[in-house]
Amino acid sequence: MTAIDVSELVRLRAQRPEAVAEAAARRIRRPLIRSTGPSAGRLMIIAADHPARGALAVGDRRLAMADRLDLLERLCLALSRPGVDGVLASADILDDLLLLGALEDRVVVGSMNRGGLAGAAFELDDRFTGHRPEDLTRLGFDAGKLLLRIDYEDPRSLDTLYSSARAIDAMAERRLPVFVEPFICHRVDGRLRTDLGAEAVTRSIAIASGLAGTSAYTWLKVPVTQNPDDMARVMETSTLPAVLLGGEIGGDQEGAYEKWRGALRLPTVQGLVVGRSLLYPVDGDVAGAVDIAVGLL
Residue 156 burial (CB < 10 Å; 0-12/13-18/19+)? Predict the structure, then answer.
């Protein structure tokens, strides 16, 4: 993996905090979707916004993503692989990657609402504690992403729906794409669980697609359904472009690839946004896992 000098990174942050804005200003940008080349019309994004919500576990390793040096090294390696288009992360991680020069000619997606901390009593109160639309514009980033979890029995879901709609409006005003990640959720023994059944995913897509005053800049970020054979019917719910999210795959890396492969054939599915399963693969081979995922496109 790429060796990173933490001391130099910290020195820059402590002595020259303006270096982040300077790196953002000189960053080489690219279109969200390339029109030419081997991956034309497709997206492969590496996700790393989990820590900002306190979600640090990978499998049975409860604090795997808490080692920032290790995470940055894995991210830099993943971003260096052919066919990888960019990264989705919170401000602290994107600032590090800017200072490391790892975001040149890459799509940069800022994570917008991280207030619904994993396991918290207020988890469904997904407030916008991350990038604002004006931050994404100021830094010259390429898109934003918001999490939209809905529990029909939790009135706080209405607050999330409302604030998400207004965030989509603000992004559209700036002509910035926003990836909306919708889920229908339920509390089971006090813990929040996502429903990946075909009907629940269908409803979540329908709700997300109808938010805000325009859907012109809205993308969907959707899971593969519990039964992958249901995906074709589920994805008929909307004409919005969509990417698949990776999610937890346990130890079945090959099974995950097969699920993604099938769903990627659907007409609205434009690519993958995958995090932990590629950054922390079961066999430890980050480059190999990323290359296989890119090959699915």
Answer: middle
